[in-house]
Amino acid sequence: MSRTIDAVGLTRAVSAAAQALVGRLPIVFEPSPADDRKGAVSVPGEGAQALSALVTGTEISVVLALRADVMSAIVDGPLGPMDAVTALFPLLEDALASLEPVLGYSLALDAQEVMPADSAFESIVQTGAQTYTVTLGSSSGPAGVLVLAVPSRQDDGEALDDEPQRGQDRDERREEGGGFEPLRDAELLVTAVLGRTRMTIRDVLGLAGGHVIELDGTSRGTVDLLANGTLVARGEVVVIDDEFGVRITGVPSHRSRA
User: Fold this and answer.
1) SS3 140
2) What is the predicted pLDDT for the residue at 79?
3) Number of folded domains that form the chain
4) What are phi and psi of 10, to 5 degrees?
5) Residue 147 Cα distances to 2, 43, 134, 153, 256, angstroms
6) Domain extent at residue 88
């Protein structure tokens, strides 16, 4: 099965994706209407940083660029220092969910990395992709920019397969494993996630001892194991010598990892 994407649908989807960020950033902003002009892709201030990721199995990329002060408030927020990918990846995942009805199949992100916003946008321009841009406008100027970049041949009405060949090829290369041999000793940040929830900045700043936060998850202790923000396994919480651990209960296929 496949579904054809069109400019109108993508414009609507990226606008919805931007709305999913409202209340999730440490600044009040208003998303602009989606703009499909290439000139709309602009860096939101000097020193802006961007989280860039690919939609798994496609050549579609999503970039969230934030002004330097906004990014600083996120990574050095009230909950303590946080890695930029770890902080921003859940936001981009939620925004991506708005694209699923348009592209026609479940989506996941791959190859996520944080880089200077000008470098991220320069890469998009070099590919010649069609862009759909939403500016996150604030009283002090653009707080950020959300960009969806789609290869022109797909934007012209090409159907996207539910299981794209590109994704299959990548899975086959991963299973072969030979190309990853030099990287096997590289360290990854592994995080166990019991659940997630959405809170306003006001609620976060008002947290105090005794508060209970309800998480989106199960009550059975099931956790997601993330490596640099990517789901690699699921498990259950165990206690070993008064220390918490995770017993692996399942490993998702490459295609389903998010």
Assistant:
1) coil
2) 64
3) 2
4) -70, -40
5) 24, 11, 7, 18, 24
6) 2-161
- Residue 175 falls within a domain, yes or no? no
pLDDT at site 252: 66
150 and 199, same domain (yes or no)? no
Kindly state the helix (H) or strand (E) to which residue 154 belongs, with its residue range. helix 152-155
Could you identify the residue written with the tokens 């579609």? 60
Give this prediction's pTM.
Answer: 0.59
Whether residue 172 lies inside any domain: the answer is no
Note whether 150 and 251 are same-domain residues: no
Are 157 and 194 within one domain? no
Which parts of 20-130 fold into alpha helices (H)?
Answer: 68-75, 84-97, 100-103, 117-127
Tell me: do 98 and 208 sit in the same domain.
Answer: no
- Per-residue pLDDT tens digits for 108-121: 777 778 899 999 89
Q: Is 17 helix (H, G, I), strand (E, B) or coil?
A: helix
CA separation for the pair 185, 183 (Å, rounded): 6
Quick check: is 50 in a domain? yes
Q: Which helix (H) or strand (E) holds 45?
A: none
Q: DSSP letter string over 168-219?
A: HHHHHHHHH-GGGGGGTT----EEEE--B----HHHHHT--TT-----BS-S
75 in Cβ contact with 68 (< 8 Å): no
